[in-house]
Write a structure and sequence with these properties.
mainly alpha, 2 domains, 6 helices, 2 strands
């Protein structure tokens, strides 16, 4: 198996697993009767626009399952144009939709898109964790140094 084929296989299986995770999250939200995504509940106004929350989330789960099936078709892409072209088109449309969703939820979490709903209360903590993971222990190290300097200047013997 060539290196390019291995990369293709890994990308297709990763897309399939991501779609299955989305599907499971939507089934769970349907069971709970909630709109939105896990950790990002939909604004209260959104519930007025949906007649049956459970059915809406199960429809989203079905879409996620369809994305998983399309991703599996990408594992061994047919050479037949009647299969190949629709699979590629649906795949690229899915990529654009998922990308738009990620950007939208990121903008909501950052407070840049209030029309998508209020910033979740834990979003600041999540951004802090993401920031810390990017810079390693640098923030903690600076915090410890600052605390040590404050302790020295505040002590009566210092």
């Amino acid at each position: 198996m060539s290196r390019a084929h291995k990369k293709h296989l890994v990308a297709a299986l990763t897309a399939c697993l991501g779609a299955l995770a989305y599907t499971v999250s939507k089934v769970d939200l349907a069971r709970e009767g909630e709109l939105g995504m896990p950790g990002f509940p939909a604004p209260a106004e959104a519930y007025a626009a949906v007649a049956d929350v459970g059915t809406a989330q199960l429809a989203n789960a079905a879409l996620g399952l369809l994305m998983a099936v399309v991703a599996l078709f990408l594992v061994r892409l047919s050479r037949t144009p009647l299969v190949r072209l629709p699979v590629l088109v649906v795949s690229w449309v899915g990529i654009v939709m998922v990308g738009a969703g990620v950007l939208g939820f990121g903008a909501r979490a950052a407070g840049l898109a209030p029309s998508l709903g209020a910033t979740p209360p834990h979003a600041h903590r999540a951004r802090g964790i993401a920031c810390r993971s990017r810079v390693g222990d640098g923030l903690d190290h600076r915090r410890r140094l600052r605390h040590a300097q404050q302790s020295v200047t505040a002590s009566p013997n210092g």
